[in-house]
Amino acid sequence: MAEKKKEKEPEKKPEPVIEWGVNLGGLFTGLGEFIGQVAKLAEKAELESAGVSVEPRRPLHGMYGVSVRVGPTGPVLSRFGTIKPSLEPGAAEVREPLVDIFENEKKITVIAELPGVEEKDIKVEVEGRTLKISAGSKDHKYSKEVELPAAVTAELESTYTNGVLELKLKKKAE
C-alpha cells in the first residue's frame, strides 16, 4: 500500500494580540474621517472669513469662460458665459448672454442668446465701438457690453426669434 504523502501546510503566524482589546484598524479609519471633516470645516471657515457664502442659495445653471481671437492689432481676450465671475451676493442673478460677432467688409453681425425675455424688454445701445445689450423679464435678466471690431454707424437692423437676437450694424467708412 502506498503511503499518502501529507502536504505540508503553511505555518500559521499567530495574530498579534492586543491585551486591551482595541482594533487599531478601525481607529485609524475613524481618525482619517475625522481629519477629513476638520479640513472641510477649516476650508468653510476660511471662505466665510473672506466674505464668501458657502451655503447654497439656489442651484446655479450656467457657464463662464474666456475666448481668444486674433484681431487686426493682435490677440483679443473676451469673456463669455451666462454668469458673471464675482463673489458678490446676487451676482449670478444678472447673466451675460452668449454673444457671437461676425464681420465682413461692410457690416458687423452680432448674435446674442436671450432666452426667456420678450423683444420689447430688450435694450440695445451703441456708444463708439461699445455695444451694450440688456434685457429683463420677471425671471430672466441679461446684461453684456461688447467691444466691436470696428466703428459703426447709427443704422441698426434687429431681429429676435426664439430667444436669439441678431443685430446687423453698418461699418463706418474709414
Radius of gyration: 32 Å
- For the record, the CATH class of the largest domain is Mainly Beta
Strand order of the largest sheet: 3-4-9-8
Number of helices: 1
Helix content: 10-25%
CATH architecture of the largest domain: Sandwich
Shape, please? elongated
What is the strand tally? 9
The low-confidence parts are none
Q: How would you state the average pLDDT, rounded?
A: 75
User: What are the secondary-structure elements, in order, as H or E?
Assistant: HEEEEEEEEE
In terms of DSSP E residues, the strand content is 35-45%
Main beta-sheet annotation: 4 strands, antiparallel
Could you state the oligomeric state of the chains shown? Answer: single chain
User: What number of structural domains do the residues give?
Assistant: 2
* SS content category: mainly beta
What is the CATH third-level topology name of the largest domain? Immunoglobulin-like
Q: In whole angstroms, how far apart are the ends?
A: 114 Å
Topology:
Elements lengths: L23 H26 L14 E8 L2 E8 L17 E5 L3 E7 L8 E6 L2 E7 L4 E7 L4 E10 L2 E8 L3
Antiparallel strand pairs: 1-2, 3-4, 4-9, 5-6, 6-7, 8-9
List keywords for this structure.
single chain, 174 residues, mainly beta, Immunoglobulin-like, 2 domains, three-stranded antiparallel beta sheet, 1 helix, 9 strands, elongated
How would you describe the overall organization of this protein?
This protein is mainly β. It has 2 domains: 24-54; 64-171, Immunoglobulin-like. 15% of the residues lie in helices and 38% in strands. The protein contains 1 helix and 9 strands; from the N terminus they run αβββββββββ. It has one helix at residues 24-49, and strands at 64-71, 74-81, 99-103, 107-113, 122-127, 130-136, 141-147, 152-161, 164-171. The strands form 3 sheets. A 4-stranded antiparallel beta sheet has the order 3-4-9-8, with no helix packed on it. Strands 5-6-7 form a 3-stranded antiparallel beta sheet, with no helix packed on it. The chain has a two-stranded antiparallel ribbon with strand order 1-2. β5 and β6 (130-136) form a beta hairpin. The protein is elongated, with a radius of gyration of 32 Å. It starts with 23 loop residues before the first helix and ends with a strand.
